[in-house]
Every structure is written in C-alpha cells, then in structure tokens.
C-alpha cells in the first residue's frame, strides 16, 4: 500500500502475486501481509471505498500538497470483513464488471 503522495494515491494498493522474481519495493510502499483468514484481494478492493479513503485523508500528515500515512494508522483502518463466501461473491461481481469495462475500453481504443 502506498504511504503517500497526492491525496488520491494515499493508501492505494495492489495485490502482489509474485509476477517478478526477486522484486523489492520502495520504502514509501508498505508491504501488508494479512492473516491467512483475510483475503488480500478483499482488502485491496475495500481500501478503494470512500469511507477508507476519507479515513486515510483525516489521519494523514500533510505538507505542501503531499500526504503521508504511518503504518500505525494503516493498521487502524476500519476494514469490514463479511463472511468469506460474501467476500468471494462480491469480488467475482466486481471482477466481472471490471472485465466488461476493459472490453469496452479495448473496443473503443482499437475501434473493433
């Protein structure tokens, strides 16, 4: 997860799936290692929700148009965890919508 930068980048993350061998991350990126009972894809999706973006913004330290959040505040983020089957169902629905958007984007860009 991103430690900071512009407000829209604060707390933004991605799920690492070992795409590159021997890859390291910059010191302004937090490596979040959730417990096995926590779905990392769910955490990534949830951190894009407006209530968590607001949480990151109010907890951030700001200086000259840049914001940063501490690992302590990151750990305090109120992430909601519905039962695992609900997480999977929601993730599948969101992925289907994202796939549809990507297909439309591809058609528009390449005018297929």
What does this protein structure show overall?
The protein is built from four helices and three strands. It has 112 residues and is mainly alpha-helical. The chain has a three-stranded antiparallel beta sheet with strand order 1-3-2, covered by helices on one side. Strand 2 and strand 3 (66-68) form a beta hairpin. It starts with a strand and ends with a helix. The model has no long low-confidence stretch (mean pLDDT 87).
Instruction: Based on Cα principal axes, name the global outline.
Output: globular
Distance between the termini: 36 Å
H/E topology pattern = EHHEEHH
Radius of gyration: 16 Å
Low-confidence stretches: none
Number of strands: 3
Percent range for β-strand residues: 5-15%
- Strand order in space, largest sheet: 1-3-2
Largest sheet: 3 strands, antiparallel
Please work out how many helical segments DSSP would assign.
Answer: 4
The chain-level structural class is mainly alpha
What's the pLDDT, averaged over the residues?
87
Helix content: 40-55%
